[in-house]
Every structure is written in structure tokens, then in C-alpha cells.
Specification:
Layout (H helix, E strand, L loop, with lengths): L1 H10 L3 H14 L2 H7 L15 H8 L4 H21 L9 E5 L11 H5 L3 E6 L2 H10 L4 E4 L13 E6 L8 H14 E11 L10 H8 L4 E3 L10 E3 L2 H7 L4 E7 L10 E7 L1
Parallel strand pairs: 1-2, 1-4, 2-3, 4-5
Antiparallel strand pairs: 5-9, 6-7, 8-9
Helix pairs in contact: 2-4
């Protein structure tokens, strides 16, 4: 019944406006609790300001501050551990980019690196999230990006770009375009780390989608809302290796390894 309703809404061109209204309700319903809790006047255990609850809900779908902070800590520690395993000290990099930084869930965990002289940068499609980051997370440099490239950075600027739960919400054409753009701004030998929905989410797919996934094809739902949480992309491992790694060396693939991001897989690439 649910699938039929979604199909009917698509045919009537009502899916996108209804989804946007749903997102507005989701953020608006927490505005009063924000004032009551006064999150914007509080700091987390890291001493940094906490985002308003409505922004946490927008990026995570959950108003829990504890989950927001814990998920970001898990993701950041995971990144650090992955590089420790290959004997690379990321605190010695000159510049790191969080592509799809949201309201700073992960990037706030790298504020100590900024004190060491590492340039910390964040970019996101949502200007409301970036506006908050610019005002409250002064250790990093933030900018908005469009749904399509380019980014506002020079060629070969970054040693590391990480992108968590971003390619999981983009259609095929945008994924290829963004891989090429991120390669442009990576230094030779620089690293790209990103997450994907893979085999662990196979049970979520319908019969037609499972057949496509088994044929090593990308499965994308609701391309008309690309860049939002409703658009969902599912990546077979072979698809990623054959379609998204040109010009890179695959350093690691970790099944369900994107800790802090559900059951997503994690990819670590190095630019050739």
C-alpha cells in the first residue's frame, strides 16, 4: 500500500512538495523545545556550541543531542584509526575537507587539529547549516556548495576529503560528477574517504531493486529529491570499484565500517 501511494504521488508530481512540507514540519515542531532547552546557549563536552535541535533533526532525523555527539565522535575516531592502521598521521596534513558537513557532527571532533595548524574546511548543500557553522564553529572554514560541482577551492588543495552519508543520497550522474570534482581538489597522493549503502541494506530493497543490485548496478530511489535524506542510493561493491574509483587506488573497503553512520560501508581511496 505504501509503495503504491508513493508511486501515485510521483505520477501526480506531488512527491517533492509533500516531502518538502514534511521536512518543514520536522524542523518546525522542535522550535519551541529549542527555546525551552536553549541548546544554542549550551556547549557540548568538547566546549563547542551545540546546534539547535531543529538542525540536529534536519541532518540526523533524531533530536537526541547525545546521539548526535556520540555518532560524530564514533565517525571521527573511526577516520583516525583507519589512518593509524596505514601509518598516516592526519594531524600532520595541511588541509582537510568535510564534504557534506551538516551542522558539524563530525568536523567538531577535529577542532584540536586546527590548533596544530591543520586547515579544517566544511562544505554543505544546505545554507542554513553552513550559516550556523560559520557563526559557531570558528576553528574551521565553511562554505556552501550547489547540488552540482564545482566547489570553491583551488586545484590540489586537500590532503584528505571525507564524505559520510553523501553519496548515499545522490543519483548516478551526480556521483560521477562529484568524484571527479573531489579528485580535482585533492593533492596527488591525497585521500578520499566516503560511505555507501551496500550489501548490509539488501533486505531493504524490493524485488526489482534486488535484481538490479545483484547485477552490480546502482540502485537509486527518488532521484527527484536528490541531495535530501529521502533520495537513497545503494552501491554494490563491484559497482563502486568499476565506476567510482578511476584515477584512485583503493586502499581499503570496510563492510559496514562507517561507524557512526548506521550500517554503511566505508571506502578509502588514494589519488594517483
Amino acid at each position: 500500500m505504501k509503495a503504491y501511494l508513493i508511486y501515485a504521488l510521483q505520477k501526480l508530481n506531488l512527491l517533492l512538495p509533500i516531502f518538502r512540507f514534511h521536512e518543514w514540519v520536522k524542523t518546525a515542531r522542535y522550535s519551541l523545545s529549542d527555546r525551552a532547552k536553549n541548546n544554542q546557549d549550551k556547549s557540548g563536552p568538547d566546549g563547542l556550541p551545540l546546534p539547535p535541535t531543529k538542525l540536529i533533526v534536519l541532518v540526523a532525523g533524531d533530536p537526541s543531542i547525545m546521539s548526535f555527539l556520540r555518532g560524530g565522535e564514533m565517525a571521527a575516531n573511526n577516520i583516525k584509526n583507519i589512518f593509524q592502521n596505514i601509518d598516516v598521521q592526519i594531524n600532520e596534513f595541511s588541509a582537510i575537507l568535510d564534504f557534506g558537513c551538516g551542522c558539524g557532527r563530525v568536523i567538531r571532533q577535529f577542532h584540536s587539529f586546527a590548533k596544530m595548524g591543520v586547515g579544517i574546511y566544511g562544505s554543505d548543500y544546505n545554507p542554513v547549516l553552513i550559516d550556523w557553522c560559520q557563526k559557531e564553529l570558528g576553528f574551521a572554514n565553511f562554505s556552501t556548495n550547489q547540488l552540482t560541482p564545482p566547489l570553491k577551492f583551488d586545484d590540489e588543495k586537500f590532503d584528505l576529503i571525507y564524505s559520510l552519508s553523501v553519496f548515499t543520497h545522490l543519483p548516478e550522474s551526480l556521483q560521477s560528477a562529484w568524484i571527479n570534482e573531489l579528485a580535482r581538489i585533492l593533492k596527488p597522493g591525497g585521500y578520499l574517504l566516503f560511505s555507501t549503502h551496500g550489501e548490509a541494506d539488501f533486505a531493504m530493497l524490493n524485488a526489482a531493486e534486488k535484481e538490479k543490485f545483484r547485477a552490480n548496478e546502482l540502485v537509486v530511489r527518488y532521484e527527484e529529491v536528490s541531495g535530501t535524506n529521502m533520495c537513497a542510493a545503494f552501491h554494490p561493491e563491484i559497482y563502486v570499484r568499476e565506476q567510482l574509483t578511476q584515477g584512485f587506488e583503493v586502499m581499503d573497503f570496510i563492510f559496514r565500517g562507517a561507524y557512526g553512520n548506521g550500517y554503511q560501508d566505508l571506502w578509502l581511496l588514494r589519488k594517483l
